Amino acid sequence: MKRLLLLTVFLGILSLGTPARAAVLSTHSKEVYAVYIVPAPKAFPTELGYVITNFGPGNINFLERVDVVVDKEGRVQGIQLVYTPPDGFKRHVFLAGRRTLIVQEARPGSLKKRVLFRVITTEELSQLD
Q1: What is the pTM of this model?
Q2: Which of 21, 67, 74, 89 could, after both became Cys, cross-link 80 (CB 3.0–4.6 A)?
C-alpha cells in the first residue's frame, strides 16, 4: 500500500513539472566537398573503427546531417553526426564538448554532397529519426 501511494505521489509530481521543449533552432543545407571535426584536447579518442569524424572526398557520401547541440542558454554542448556507412546501419554519434568544425565547400565540377546542418537543443538529441 505504501508503495502504491508513493508511486502515485511521484507520478503526480512528474505530471506537474513542465515538459522539456525540444527544438530545432536553425537549419541550413549546403553542398560540401569535405567535413572535418577536430577533437577537443584530452577528449575520448574518436579514431575507433566504427566512429567516423572526418568525411573527406572518399566518404562524404556517408554523411547525412551535422547537428550543433546547444543548451537552454545557447552554450555549445557538442556536435552530433548522422551518417550511414557501407554496412547500412545509420549511426548517430554525439561528440561532447567544444570541437572545431571544418567545412570545405564544393567547387563547381568537384565531388560534392548536400549535407544538412542544424542547430538543436539538448532535448532534441533524444528524438532519433
Answers
A1: 0.72
A2: 67
